[in-house]
Amino acid sequence: MKRDLSPTFSTDDARWAAVASRDPSADGQFFYGVATTGVYCRPSCGARLPLRGNVSFHATPEAAAAEGFRPCRRCRPEGPTQAQRQAELVTAACRAIESAETPPDLETLAAAAGLSPHHFHRVFKAVAGVTPKAYAKAHRAGRVRDGLVRAGTVTEALYDAGYASSARFYDDASGVLGMAPRAYRQGGADAVIRFAVAQCSLGALLVAATDKGVCAIALGDDPDPLVKELQDRFPRAELRGGDAAFEAMVAVVVGAVERPGPALDVPLDIRGTAFQQRVWQALREIPPGRTCSYTEVAERIGSPTSVRAVAAACAANTLAVAVPCHRVVRSDGGLSGYRWGVERKRALLAREGEGA
Question: Which entry of 72, 215, 292, 325 is annotated as an active-site residue?
């Protein structure tokens, strides 16, 4: 079946502008052939810019080859794009980090990718949104959280997660868990979580916070299930009602529900895997009044094939409005599931659209 040239570059003038600027976003959208050399290239090819009159445009490598052009040896247009190759290298590095007993160092990861440590570090951060060290730390944090629930002792959990010493783990514990590891393992024992339930136009609203910041914002028809969900997450934590300062913060959250606007200006205690953190950060960068599809979010974080994982990260979000997963919709613009109900999602988007 014949493929038309991308509507994003619907005219020869637009395609030529992409070639002249070596626009990497045009790669894969079309290819150009040069009559004087007999080769075809990607739009981003670094070869010398040809004369406009010698250039023709083609939808696919096969279409260019059918016209007698051969692939450029510099940009190799018949193969994956540079972005795709980098994504594959980073994916392989992530799998290596996840499967190792102890996180491999930068030099080892770079050597496996066939790049210098400096270049690999730059590529990894550009694709993953975090450094290799930060990715390894977040992955290990997830193993610790899972291990503390299953393991017989804290020591067993931390060594299973790949920590070389207990001292190193306890240095990281607060940032990893938000509380002492034994307290986390015991369902939040000795931890203090302040919370309050308010009413807003979308129903009951629960806000909860550790000493680091807001850790839960939940919406529902009735406050009791919201409080029970918080208790189930930390069955042995001490849940306290909020003081005047906390009530003021709750009022800010209520205001964000009633009058959606810029990013919620309250401290947040956000914990999740490295992938979830990348997704949630991308969601916080979507302006009010705008939406993105799950596919677009996956592309923004450099993982275009991870659409289902993006949807799962949205579903795992426990901070309504603060991490605006309601701004993510299906590719056709339709509203998909929302942790706190599709009608609430519809209402939030409508309010943001009115204020845009």
Answer: 325
